[in-house]
From TrEMBL:
UniProt domain Carbohydrate kinase FGGY C-terminal: residue ranges: 257-427
The keyword Hydrolase is annotated on this UniProt entry: no
Protein name: Xylulose kinase
GO biological process: D-xylose metabolic process; xylulose catabolic process
Keywords from the UniProt entry: ATP-binding, Carbohydrate metabolism, Kinase, Nucleotide-binding, Transferase, Xylose metabolism
Database matches in NCBIfam families: XylB (TIGR01312)
Role this protein plays: Catalyzes the phosphorylation of D-xylulose to D-xylulose 5-phosphate.
Source organism: Streptomyces spongiae
Site (Important for activity): residue numbering on this chain: D13
Active site as annotated: D239
Gene Ontology molecular function, alphabetical: ATP binding; D-xylulokinase activity
EC number: 2.7.1.17
Length: 481
């Protein structure tokens, strides 16, 4: 390892499929070491993971970083949002965590919205209208279906909270991640007592919300990790808020993230309250807001279509009039938790490559439909879209976004932006800087800009028409005739 110019920090991204750790020079942003280890997700009706796998993966990833991790002065963890982690009195998981893409709580989500004042009231109180992804709906599902698990629960955490607590021994969270639970009021920035009472969740089971820039704790010496005792631990945050930090986002810059899920978001100084539920009014990790729309089906769904067709994911062909709505896991935007994939317009001369392009079109259409709602009214609609995530370097994704948005697209060269954002948060603890300013100093958003092309209005209109006409099918619950 070459000598670092400044202190070293560790940024962690614990995502749906794996945990990654980066050791970063806080002065320059240079990644001096990295590690990664996988974890598993259940298949079938639910999406669950054992939180202990996340810890094992974190330990493995950190040990892969070698001596650099031992030299780090601070660490921060960014993690998948919304997941419900239930712990017993000894701090062990009561059951596997219910993940963000587990949509079994859709009935509870509808019922909670109705019982607590309707969509407008929810948006004004919490910033969001909860869907099946939100943690509060998962707790309601658990209480209804596994009451013995609820009785055994002594602490409720989010995924990043769980790992932070194992590092420090203290139960903490941050405003960015807690804003996706549904039981945190964005107007008062405090836990919402009425919501918690309604779902039977004792506030004493919840972690303390650490303020931006505050130290969450220090690494304790009760486990075999390559950290020095007393290493500072930052608050951490949810993955989207961490990526926003990693890009050094300023208000109004739009981001389209292509991962297992797809998201579109921008930093705003205005607290969002969208009563339609399309935009989640999340907080960011700095003190501003992060209005965001999320789709459940993005790269994983398109890759599955490519696999079914026996094609490489880049083997798209133009000229299709086929519409493919790739809602393979239900969908969150639009809110269709019981939907499945839908294909319309198939002809004898339709090629496999055209079907694959239709899957890309369907996935991107859902994200772009929410873009104008995410951006503030005075945002520059011609500014480049920052394209990030696992799909961002794929030519088919880039060209589909350009064609359906009509906007220039910028692809940052920096990889692992969630882990970089967590590292910037850790660096901010040491320097007293705004973490976003740290990332801008690191120049993490640098990358090529692909110029705009004419917007494909015909395809956008065709997809919107099929989506509207197919609404009765897509909204049908399992077993319903």
């Amino acid at each position: 390892m070459s000598a670092a110019e400044g202190p070293l920090v560790v940024g962690v991204d614990t995502s749906t499929q794996s945990t990654k750790a980066l050791v970063v020079d806080a002065s320059t942003g240079r990644v001096v070491a990295s590690g990664q280890a996988p974890h598993t997700v259940s298949s079938g009706a639910g999406r669950e993971s054992d939180p202990r796998q996340w810890w094992d993966a974190l330990c493995t990833a950190l040990h892969q970083c070698g001596d650099a991790a031992h030299e780090a002065a601070a660490v921060s963890i960014g993690g998948q949002q919304h997941g419900l982690v239930t712990l017993d009195a000894q701090g062990d998981p009561v059951r596997p965590a219910l993940l963000w893409n587990d949509v079994r709580s859709a009935p509870q989500a509808r019922r909670l919205v109705e019982e607590l004042g309707g969509p407008k009231t929810w948006a004004e109180r919490t910033g969001s209208v909860p869907g099946a992804s939100f943690t509060v709906t998962k707790w309601a599902w658990l209480a209804e279906n596994e009451p013995e698990a609820v009785r055994a629960t002594a602490a409720v955490r989010l995924p990043h909270d769980y790992l932070t607590e194992r590092l420090t021994g203290q139960g903490t969270t941050d405003r960015g991640d807690v804003s996706g639970t549904g039981w945190w009021a964005s107007g008062t920035e405090a836990y919402d007592e009425e919501t918690l009472a309604h779902v039977g969740l004792d506030p004493a089971l919840l972690p303390r919300v650490v303020r931006p820039g505050e130290v969450a704790g220090t690494v304790r010496d009760t486990h075999d990790l390559p950290f020095s005792k007393g290493t500072l631990v930052a608050p951490g945050t949810g993955d989207n808020a961490a990526a926003a930090l990693g890009l050094g986002l300023r208000p109004g810059t739009p981001v389209l993230s292509l991962g297992t899920s797809g998201t579109v978001y921008a930093v705003s100084t205005r607290r969002p309250t969208d009563p339609t539920g399309t935009v989640a009014g999340f907080a960011d990790a700095r003190g501003d807001w992060l209005p965001l729309a999320c789709t459940l089906n993005c790269t994983l769904a398109v890759d599955r279509v490519a696999e079914l067709l026996g094609l490489d994911r880049e083997a798209v062909e133009p000229g299709t009039s086929v519409t493919l709505l790739p809602y393979l896991d239900g969908e969150r935007t639009p809110n269709l938790p019981h939907a499945s994939g839908l294909l319309h317009g198939l002809r004898h001369d339709t090629t496999a490559g055209q079907l694959l392009q239709a899957a890309y079109d369907g996935a991107v259409h859902s994200l772009l439909g929410a873009l104008d709602l995410v951006l503030d009214p005075d945002a520059d609609r011609s500014a480049p879209l920052l394209l990030i995530g696992g799909g961002a370097r794929g030519t088919a994704w880039q060209e589909t976004v350009r064609r359906l948005s009509g906007r220039p697209v910028q692809v940052p060269e920096a990889k692992e932006l969630v882990a970089l954002g967590a590292a910037a948060q850790a660096a901010g603890l040491l320097t007293g800087e705004d973490p976003a300013a740290v990332a801008r100093r690191w120049d993490t958003a640098r990358g090529p800009v692909l110029g705009p092309v004419e917007r494909d209005e015909a395809t956008l209109s065709r997809i919107a028409g099929v989506l509207s006409d197919a609404a009765p099918l897509l909204e049908r619950e399992p077993g319903e005739r």
